[in-house]
Amino acid sequence: MLKIPVNSMRHALFLRLVIMYLVVILPIIILGVYLYNWSYTNASQDISRNTLAQLSSYLEDTNREVEWLEIQQFDMLQDGELTRVAVTWDMMDSVEKKESMDYLVHRLTSIKNSSAYMKDIYIHIPSIGKTLSFGNAVHDLERGRYDQIRALSEQSGAKRLIRQGDSLHLSASKYGGKKGEEPLYIVQIELDTAKLKESLNQLSVYPESGSFLIAEEADFTLLGSDKSPHILNEYLQAPRLSEERSMLLRADGRSYHIDKAESSELGLSVVTFLPEETVKRPLNKFNKWAWLFTATSILAIVVYSLSTYRLVHRPLLLLVQSFRRMEGGTLDIQIEHGNKDEFGYLYDRFNQMLNKLQLLIDQDFKQKLMMQKAELKQLQSQINPHFLYNSFFILNSLAKTGDTDRIELFTNMLGEYFRFITRNGEDNVYLSEEIKHARMYTEIQKLRFSRRISVQFDELPKEMERIRVPRLVVQPIIENAYEHSLEKMSEEGFLRVSFERHEPDWMIVVEDNGSQIDDAAIQALNDQMTNNGEAHEMTGIINIHRRIMLTYGEGSGLFLSRSKLNGLRVEIRINPKEADGDAPTADRR
């Protein structure tokens, strides 16, 4: 085990950086952040507390005003003279009519003068076609205003405030004895929007602050000042935030401190906003300390950054660059470092690691590579005697039938077949040549089994033609299908060779419709190929699997399963990206 000398502890880079950080940076940062946050939090909470109390008081006063208006409205609704006018108007003479109208107008004037929040009061009497108001006395029935306020009243149900136009209204109706008839009259009070806006302006303590009134059920909003509609829009577009009593709101690039109070009786909310910089204004007395803190922090950051770069970043960058060069195959690099710190220790061990790595490559890796290539050649050599035996068997069968034409054709194809095997000593061939060789084999077999076995041999895709594969990996699979499945079938046999692409693998699929092999045997063969390191008989399928896996690595090879044709399905998977130097990837021409 490698150990760092005890006397080098005084040179420890980690210890020096920790002490520097604790002495210079940490106390300043903690103190500055604490003072600023503490001051800002207290200022913000004080403003919110005072503002919420003011808003609650404002809503209570507004509720009392509305209650007073509702009392006056109710008194007017129960006035006997008003009921007599609405019911017996046609039976009254002109003098009585004039006296009644003068009396009602006088009542309206008294009610209007009783509250500054009332802009006007209306009495709509549809039975006589008249509307009475403070502003216009007696005039013809305002049918539009009457129909609208009646509809809004019926829709609003128990809501106290109703929006008509750009103002809020109170409405009360008196009905006769018959169900379904229109009301005898409606008493409508219009609230003074200008007075409400004036009262909202009184809530703004700071020059840049403002307020607005929201009646969500009535879909009514009122700004205390026309200078800040964008703040109201941003607030209304954030429904989840608007549920909070105090919050921060971002509008037009500025942050605003928002406080809100609600009145469930009126269905009203009153909201005030204040720029965040105004909230921070009490902190201006800390300006000198803030500048001192900023200068000290900058100096500390510069000192810390320079020290970190010189002591950590630059040596670490040199080590990373050396590792990258080593990954690229350069092993004759040495790192020099004169300081007795952790990097000196790492550089020394890095140099020793490179020397040992070069030694291991010479003694171990190259030997294993040579053994692998020797095993590959040995596995390939096992294929040829097996196929030669089967070829002579077919030729013998044809000779017994005395069919000289088919013998001539067969010998020509057999000559081409063995020319492919013996023409040179290459370990790997193009897939187009391998498939041509396999197709030649199926043509040879057609001479023998043309009536019993049909073959579907798909065309090789252009993208796969230039892939290099070990010699004799497709034909033995086809031969295996003939020998162990198709030849033994009593009904017509079928063999299919197709090509598929599943990124990043190319696949050659050989499948038949035989039923000679069961699922247990398929699983046993898959297990043998998976455990290729164990000692077992080297069958033809396992032979091919080992050769492909040696060439293309893990993930490539043979994969067996039950075919949709009910026979055996053999997938030859090839991943050209994983190929070694003896098997170039596909040519992407």
Automatic annotation (TrEMBL):
- In which compartments does the protein localize? Cell membrane
Membrane among the record's keywords?
yes
Membrane topology summary: Multi-pass membrane protein
Concerning SUPFAM superfamilies, the annotation shows:
ATPase domain of HSP90 chaperone/DNA topoisomerase II/histidine kinase (SSF55874), HAMP domain-like (SSF158472)
Q: Which InterPro entries match?
A: Bact_2-comp_sensor_kinase, HAMP_dom, HATPase_C_sf, Sig_transdc_His_kin_internal
Instruction: Give the chief site where it resides.
Output: membrane
- The answer, when asked if Transmembrane is one of the entry's keywords, is yes
Q: Which UniProt keywords apply?
A: Cell membrane, Kinase, Membrane, Phosphoprotein, Transferase, Transmembrane, Transmembrane helix
Gene3D superfamilies from the UniProt entry: 6.10.340.10, Histidine kinase-like ATPase, C-terminal domain (3.30.565.10)
The UniProt record lists the HAMP domain at 310-362
- What are the protein's GO molecular function terms? protein histidine kinase activity
**What is this enzyme's EC?**
2.7.13.3
Instruction: Name the residues that span the membrane.
Output: 12-36, 289-312
Which superkingdom does the taxonomy of this entry point to?
Bacteria
- One Pfam assignment: HAMP
Which PANTHER family does the UniProt record give? SENSOR HISTIDINE KINASE YPDA
UniProt protein name = Two-component system sensor histidine kinase YesM
User: Which taxonomic lineage is given here?
Assistant: Bacteria, Bacillati, Bacillota, Bacilli, Bacillales
